[in-house]
């Protein structure tokens, strides 16, 4: 029997990080070897998530922890401000990054891909690990071939730092790949309040809602002659992302270079 995959979790005490810790501790194919969070240390990771002590204490020095614990994979759900430097550190130490944090530029992804290939390792960057959300994106991309008039509305809690969301941007990229750029609406349209029509991407609009009490939803609305089509996905809790994260950790061991988008693993 092959050995288990050694996993480090960056941002371990965050809300998503704690779900990742629980998932790793529950999966017989994975072994938690490190839990890193800048604001925490010396707390047992198992106790932190309401489980029995697992012997892995939280640390706050990512590079030192990677050197000492020698993980195969680092799962990162931190912040847009730290995720690129975290990923570069992981790759430097031959650790495969699996990243759910958003905020990457195309240039960031290219650089991480280059460095992974130089090291002969792979990694995954996914704006969304929810299998239902990936299906929503795929269905939207398919619909765009036949109904090119489209707008996206995404909803998140008011503490989300980036707008539009990484999921909506990835959805927009997939839609744009399946339709010619089309500037929708009346050419004489005028915004009387700036931003009322949302952000413009490849001729269509993305609208970001930020409210307390909201978790994560996205709706893609297509309009045609005498009809509309709405494709919507609703996430209600963070545990819903964990089956996808587990798949990504295992797939990362087979890759060379960075794969952007979890949809690449859903047929």
From TrEMBL:
The active site is at 156 (proton donor/acceptor), 160 (proton donor). It is found in: Cytoplasm. (S)-2,3,4,5-tetrahydrodipicolinate binds at residues 166-167. NAD(+) binds at residues 11-16, 37, 100-102, 126-129. It is an enzyme of class 1 (oxidoreductase). Pfam families: DapB_C, DapB_N. Catalyzes the conversion of 4-hydroxy-tetrahydrodipicolinate (HTPA) to tetrahydrodipicolinate. NCBIfam families: dapB. It comes from Paenibacillus aurantius. Belongs to the DapB family. GO terms for cellular component: cytosol. This is 4-hydroxy-tetrahydrodipicolinate reductase. One of its GO terms (biological process) is diaminopimelate biosynthetic process.
């Amino acid at each position: 029997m092959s050995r288990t995959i050694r996993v480090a979790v960056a941002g371990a005490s965050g809300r998503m990080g704690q779900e990742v810790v629980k998932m790793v501790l529950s999966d017989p194919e994975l072994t938690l070897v490190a839990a890193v969070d800048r604001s925490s240390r010396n707390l047992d990771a198992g106790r932190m998530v309401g489980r029995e002590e697992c012997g892995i204490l939280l640390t706050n020095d990512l590079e030192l922890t990677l050197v000492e614990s020698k993980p195969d994979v680092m799962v990162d759900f931190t912040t847009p401000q730290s995720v690129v430097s975290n990923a570069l550190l992981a790759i430097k130490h031959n650790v495969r990054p699996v990243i759910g944090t958003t905020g990457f530029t195309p240039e960031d992804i290219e650089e991480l891909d280059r460095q992974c290939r130089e090291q002969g390792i792979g990694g995954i960057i996914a704006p969304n690990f929810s299998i239902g959300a990936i299906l929503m994106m795929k269905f939207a991309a398919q619909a765009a071939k036949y109904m090119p008039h489209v707008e996206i509305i995404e909803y998140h809690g008011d503490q989300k730092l980036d707008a539009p969301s990484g999921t909506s941007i990835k959805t927009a990229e997939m839609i744009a790949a399946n339709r010619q750029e089309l500037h929708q609406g009346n050419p004489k349209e005028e915004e009387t309040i700036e931003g009322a029509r949302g952000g413009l991407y490849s001729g269509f609009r993305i609208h970001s809602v930020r409210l307390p009490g909201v978790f994560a939803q996205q709706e893609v609305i297509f309009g045609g002659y005498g009809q509309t089509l709405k494709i919507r996905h609703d996430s209600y809790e963070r545990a819903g992302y964990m089956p996808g994260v587990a798949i990504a950790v295992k797939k990362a061991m087979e890759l060379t270079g960075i794969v952007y988008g979890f949809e690449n693993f859903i047929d």
